[in-house]
Structures are given as C-alpha cells and as structure tokens.
C-alpha cells in the first residue's frame, strides 16, 4: 500500500473481501455501499479552511486574490449570517443557496462583484431579507489545490454582532480543519483577539495568524523628516506582537505560524499581471503556509478516518457473531451504539432547551417593564441617572443573551457527540441566524428656559445688590434659550419598541434553530433505523459459516494494518515543501535612492507647514464653538498612531520613553496638550488622574483604527472612561481615522466616511453637551484633510461647491499625483451625496 493513499487502498481491499462472491455481495450489500460512499468522500480529501477575523481585515480581498479576480464585494459592512466558500473548479460559477427556495447558479457575465453584492452585502441585502444561507464560488483560476475549500465567515467583531460572533465560533469551528485568523498589521484589539484564538485552540484547530495590509505601513519619521524606523523594522515589531498573541492564546504556539501579506497588492498583481507587485504581496508565502499546515494535519484527519473504518469493521464482525450465536437480546440496540431511547432523551433535552429560551425572552420583557416603571417614577433631572438606568437594562439584556447562547452551545455539544457516536460526518451544512439585538438609548427634547446676564455699570451693580435682598431681577438682562433635557415619554416608547423588536428577533432565531436541529434529530433516527434494518436483513439470510468466518478473519487483519499505518504516518510524515522545510521570511526590506530621499525630505517640510496652517484653523474653530481658550486632548488606543498624528499636526515628536510612560500611566500632559491612552495598565491611577483633568474645555481628537471600524465603534461608544470624561464636559469632538490608506487603495473611501459619519452622529446624540468637530484622516499629506474640512464646512454641499473646491485643491502642489487627485475627487463627491446624513 502507498503511504499517502493507505485509507483509500484499505477501502478497496475491504470491498474486495466483502464482494468476493455472490453470497457476500448479497449479505454485505449495505456495508459495500457504506464503504463506497466513504471512498468518494475521502477521495476528494476536502480540507475546510475558514478565514476568521475582525471586520474589514480584508477577508473578502484575500478570497478574491485566491480566486484570481474581484468577485466578492470588498465592503465595510458584511452580511451578518451568510457563509461564502471558494474553491477550484472546472467551470467559473457561483451557487446561491436559499433557505426557502431552490438554489440559483450564476455563470458568465452574471457572475461578478455587483451581482454577488446583491446577496452578500448588508447594504444591498439588509438583515438578509433574501434568506441566503450560503454562496459557493468555483473558478479554474483558484490559487489553491482542488481539495482545499476556503470559507469566508462573517466578521467576528461586526458592530452589534457580539453574540453572532460567539455562534460563529461555536457552530462553525467544529466543521473546519484549519483556521486562518486574519487581522491587520496595525490591529489594536489584541486582548479580544487572544480570547478568540483561545476558543479556536480549545477546539483543537490548526491556526495560521495572518497580518494583512502591509501596504499600509509607512516609515516612522523623526525631526526634520529623518527616518527613525523603516518599514522592515516596523513589520518585524508587528510580527513579534502577533507571535506574542499566539503564545498567549495557544497551548502549542511553536507549531503555529505568522504570515504578513498585502491581499490588495496580491489581487492587483494578478489582475494587472504585475509580477513584481504580486511577489511583494507575500500571497505565495501564505499559500505555502496553508500547504504546510495541510501536511501537518493530514495524520490527524487520517487517524479519524481510520477510526471510522475500524468502527464499521467491528460493527460487521459483531453483527455476524451475534447472528451466528443467536443472541438477540438487546443485540440490535447494542449494535446501534446510540440507542433509540438515547435519541429520545436528546430530543427531550432539545425541547427543554427551547422552553428555557422562551423563559429567557420573557425575562427580557420583565426587565423592560421594570425599566419603564423606574424611568416614569424617577424625579431626577440629571442625565446620568437615566444613563445608569439604561446601562442596567442593556447589561441585563447582555446577560440574558449570554444565557441563551450557553443553552445553544450545550445542545450543539450534545449533537456533535451523537454525530461522532453514529460515525457520521460532522462537516454538515448548518445555518443559524445571528442575534442582533437592539440597545436602548436615552431620548432628549428641548425646553425653553431663561438665563440672567449681569448688566455693565456701577448703577447696575447696586441694583443687583438690592435684587438679592428683595428677590427681584434688578441689574440683570434676561435671555431665553433652549435646553436639552431627558424626554421620559420618548425614552419609554423606544424601550417598548426595542423590547418588541428583540422579541421578534429572538423568536425568529428560535424557529430557525429548531428547524435545523430537528433535521439533525431526524438524521439520527434514520441512521439508527437503517442499522436495525441491516441487522434484520442479515439475520434472514442463510448462514454460510465458512464464508462469514473467512470474511471476518480478513476484516480483523485490516484493523491491525490500519493501526500500524497510522503509527507509520505519524512518525515518518515530514511537513516539507519541495523537499525542504519552509520558513517564512522574517521581514521585507525596502531601499530608497538618495535623490528620491532628498525630494521626499523637501516634500515633508512642505507638509509640515501646511499642517500648521490647518491646525491653527481647527483651533480657531474650537474656540468659536466652545467660547473660550481650549487645551488639546488626544484620546487613543494605539500609541504609535497618536505619535504620528501629533508629529504631523504639531511638529512634536514623542520619544520612546514618553510613549512607554503613556502606555503605563495612561495620561500624559505637556504644554497645553493631553494624551489619554484608554488601554493603560495602571487602572487605579488612571481614573484618579482622569478626574483631575476633567471639567475643563478641550478640543478633543479621538484617534481610531479605520480598518477595524466595528471594533472602533465598540471602543469609543462603550468606553466607560471616555463616557465619564465627555459627560458634562465642554468639548469639541474631532474623529481622526488611522489606517485609512487601504480604503483609498480599494476605492472604498466613501463607504469609510459614511461609517465614520454614522459614528459621529452616535457620539453627538449620546453626549448632548459636546460640540460637533471634524472628521479627519491621519495622513502624511494634509491635502486630504483640507478637502474633508471644506466638505464639512458647507451646510449644503452642491455641485458648484464641488467644482470650485476641486479646482483650488487640484491647483495646490500637494495634489500633484494621480492618486492624490483621485482621492480628492472621492472625498468631495462623498459630500455631494447627502444620503449619509440619515444613516
């Protein structure tokens, strides 16, 4: 037998034994069918590779690169529940599967990004109203082998999809072989990623950690434009951080790998037939890593398959023995391995689980009812009191949702156990709708109030003295104004609406889950019935003792061979590629000619002067809005990004020592500037220092990762320290998008701005006292921020504004290149479309 095909060779030899003559063919016909089915499954040798990771980490771009063309929409807002698979096939086609109608096949000109977008993009198919369950794409240009199937899972940190993320991990992971954990080189959610990696590792799945978007890395500049760290050094640092994540999240991190790629450059290199660009993307290294990983897990897969064959052989031998001996007492039940009464018990447990979930839904109704009562009877006029009430209900909902997920998790565990006991394939198709519950917000209204201002002059000073004695308003001017206050009734109405929406959502989830689960229960009953039927058929046949004993003797020898071959494969199989062990390159090096560097240094000085003008303008606007002199405060989750932004807009270069202080203490002040690092280690000292700098007027810049927009929304809107600081403070809030360049490269800048605009509205609505600032980009070239400010300054951005501003910006020497002009047009055209105002 050949080592690599020993499973298929064993099946062929078993079939020869069972089909030796007409008697055996008739007696073992069901067994022969079973081995033929297994042969077809094992021959394809499908390896399921799931790409999991943060939203907007470039999953769709990476799959497109593997497909060799742009088929999947590369959107910021993916679908919440649709699984997409990709593999090699003879023909270029996509199959769309629905839960309520027949599948649809797309071919030729009908298979393109725009058509797939109608099904897979949340903006085109909101809440999956088309009921799509899965999309399978095949193409002869796929870069991996025929047996490797890529699964593009929904994002693991999509905004308001926390519970769907947990369902993805619990339900999808048992069906896959390898996990590509995709993040970005500048990802800031290390702690959350470690938790996800731990879950993957607990399921004993092989992990390849991939850092995408190396094309977005820029060298770190010091004073006078001197390069302190080039791209290769920065990439080494990011890779080291990723390796630390694997150390923390896995038990055997030495067997796992970190690969750094640019999926976008890989895709562009293929489309434009640019070999140099493709090679710089490291996609080929990524492919080699998958191949190495497939080789390393092959013994484990073959061990499971071998065990499946052994179990079937033992079942055949035991059945023959019991029939010959005439032992019918409980024989059928014993042969089934899983008894009918066990499945009955399992079905009963599932029924109980459904009832528990219904009780949990009723708990949510009770929480809403209690909250409405509390809001209605509150006499407080303080906004914080109502925020505390709302926080309690939202947190309670999260706990209840967690309980529901634990019930689902336990049922899934029991179901997978029965699949294994029945010797059935666990890589079944499964659909479960994601939980996307709504949170409750405090609503506001405006009430007309008056305020007294002192009149100037000595006479009025005397009048004010008498006004205090006689309780009159002498010496003051009365001015009317509108004050934003809590709208109790509107908050109560929205609470009831949220409750109703969530209940409908949960009941739909329960219905979907019940349908899919009942399918699994029916499969179990069918399998048990089939085994009973096989036993009865064999029992009715004539006993030809010599033939049966000879068959059983040969079958027993196969068990011994399988055990020996498993041991041989585990000891001898080398995880090699082309005869040599593959090691990923440590870093990518870049070189810049001296003439080019001098031009670059000159342009850097021009950038600095223009940023200074831009900064002064923003500062003047903050003073106008806040009505007094302000300090600048930078609220951050990534210190390197902040250091870049501060360097660009202020010309202040933070040293490594200063960055370490910020990381440890969380708050760092100098001149009129404050930097707040929300992830600092010294929590106790952090809150104490935060209290001291509160209650002052600030021009605030929230610097966040644009690539991880879902995670960034969570960080900003759910940060307790940020919520505490903004509430009742006099601020102008500016949003600074870091890691923006990937959106320019993929022509997605409009969608990014739309998402950030939505985030900005959420912040302004949540913190009624804060002033509306600007959306900015942490870019080396200030021309983009000039365009953004121009667009935001106009109440109604019309076509004449677009033309005038475009002409001015295009005339600026900072926009001399094609990329600059294209990006400026994208930014300005965004402001022509006012639909984003309603998002």
UniProtKB/TrEMBL annotation:
<keyword id="KW-0472">Membrane</keyword>
<dbReference type="InterPro" id="IPR045063">
    <property type="entry name" value="Dynamin_N"/>
</dbReference>
<feature type="domain" description="Dynamin N-terminal">
    <location>
        <begin position="49"/>
        <end position="212"/>
    </location>
</feature>
<dbReference type="InterPro" id="IPR027417">
    <property type="entry name" value="P-loop_NTPase"/>
</dbReference>
<protein>
    <recommendedName>
        <fullName>Dynamin N-terminal domain-containing protein</fullName>
    </recommendedName>
</protein>
<keyword id="KW-0342">GTP-binding</keyword>
<dbReference type="Pfam" id="PF00350">
    <property type="entry name" value="Dynamin_N"/>
</dbReference>
<keyword id="KW-0378">Hydrolase</keyword>
<keyword id="KW-0547">Nucleotide-binding</keyword>
<dbReference type="InterPro" id="IPR027094">
    <property type="entry name" value="Mitofusin_fam"/>
</dbReference>
